[in-house]
Amino acid sequence: MTLIFAHRGLHTSERENTLEAFRAAVALGVDGVELDVRRSADGELVVHHDPGVAGRALSSTTVADLPRYIPTLAQALGACAGLGVNVEIKNIQHPTESSYDATGEFARQVVDQLSQLGWAGSVVVSCFDLATCRAVREADPSLLVGWLLLPGTDVVARVAAARDDGFHAVHPYFRSVDRAAVEAAHALGLAVNVWTVNRTDDIAAMLGLGVDYLTSDDPATALALVGRPSEGRWPMA
Question: Whose C-alpha in 41, 84, 167, 215 is 20 to 30 A from the C-alpha of 122?
Answer without folding.
Answer: 41
